[in-house]
Specification:
13 helices, TIM Barrel, alpha/beta, 11 strands, eight-stranded parallel barrel
Length: 342
């Protein structure tokens, strides 16, 4: 079916919230990874989220390095592909920092506004503003007008408090003050009280509880999921049960199944998956090159084997393994078999 509209997306997220499961949000950077993500959701019988970062958009535009152009191109491909399947796919943009709001986020919202004026569906279903580089008060001052802009165009906004450590997509927050890796109940109250007055808007919160981008050996990342529980309880105690957040889990690579499942009970409805799917795509490609070395390389005057170096052959292997990793994520997050269908 087509990329979900605002009402359908809210229904998806509300259903996950009530059922204590989450949707994998798969980062993509080209049509092969995009197809792999959607095909994985289809195989799992799960609705899902596909997302583009600024780096992913730049990559998709080739030497132009135009993040907006690349993101639009991938989104248009996603609209056409998703229309052929019976699951719900939402399109999202990931980690737009404050310095890129005017050059990435606002132009994409403007493109959706242009499409809406022409009677076309929204380009993206949701966007992320990552203002964690600012003090919380300044973060929220920037987020409020963005939420109003999103509301006016029936787009969901994701915001972040605290900082997700590590490095991903050129955003390096290694060595960050460890206290900033943990959102406080006061932080979550401040987010609710700043954003909830925007009538008609819906938003997600990426609250941090020790999350770190990248992949690490067991024991190197210390997660404290109860931070989410404490924050939710503080917000509901003051503002009622309806104030409970839709929460987002960033930096989950290498997390234990127990930690992931625990967050679902605290309101996580979206979990970003990037590092693990990158590896899943690349591993069979590396295997293909090593096993078929004399076919893919013209060694000592030989002609090689066209079937071995045709990019479609080895990209197909990467796509299949990435799709299988998406299926695993759906099972990890309990979304498998729960698609709302058409």
């Amino acid at each position: 079916m087509p990329i979900v509209n605002f009402e359908r997306y809210c229904e998806m997220l509300d259903k996950a919230h009530a059922g204590q499961y989450a949707y994998p949000a798969i980062n993509i950077s080209n049509t092969d990874t995009l197809n792999a993500a959607i095909e994985g959701f289809v195989e799992a019988g799960s609705d899902g989220i596909v997302q583009v970062s600024t780096g992913g958009g730049e990559h998709a535009s080739g030497n132009l390095k135009d993040a907006v152009l690349g993101a639009i191109s991938l989104a248009e491909h996603a609209h056409r592909i998703a229309d052929r399947y019976d699951i719900n796919i939402a399109l999202h943009t990931d980690h737009c920092t404050t310095e890129k709001v005017d050059t990435f986020l606002k132009p994409l919202i403007a493109e959706t506004a242009r499409r809406r004026a022409a009677g076309l569906p929204n380009l993206f279903s949701s966007h992320m503003y990552d203002g964690s580089d600012l003090p919380l008060e300044d973060n929220l001052k920037t987020a409020v007008p963005l939420l109003e802009l999103c509301r006016d165009n029936e787009i969901i906004l994701e915001v972040e408090t605290g900082v997700v450590g590590g490095e991903e997509d050129g955003l390096n927050r290694e060595g960050i003050d460890k206290e900033k890796l943990y959102t406080t109940p006061e932080d979550m109250l401040a987010v609710h009280e700043a954003l909830s007055p925007v009538s008609g808007a819906r938003f997600m919160l990426a609250a941090t509880f020790g999350n770190v981008h990248g992949v690490y050996k067991p024991g190197n990342v210390v997660l404290t999921p109860t931070i989410l529980k404490d924050g939710q309880e503080a917000v509901m105690a003051k503002h009622g049960d309806d104030a409970r957040f839709w929460l987002v889990f960033h930096g989950g690579s290498g997390s234990s199944q127990e930690e992931i499942r625990e967050t679902l009970g605290y309101g996580v409805i979206k979990m970003n998956v990037d590092t693990d799917t990158q590896y899943a795509f690349t591993r069979p490609v590396a295997d293909h090159m090593l096993v078929n070395y004399e076919g893919v390389i013209k060694v000592e005057g030989e002609v090689g084997n066209k079937k071995m170096y045709d990019p479609r052959g080895w990209l197909k292997k990467g796509k299949a393994t990435m799709a299988a990793r998406v299926v695993q994520s759906c099972h990890d997050l309990n979304s498998a078999g729960k698609s709302m269908g058409r």
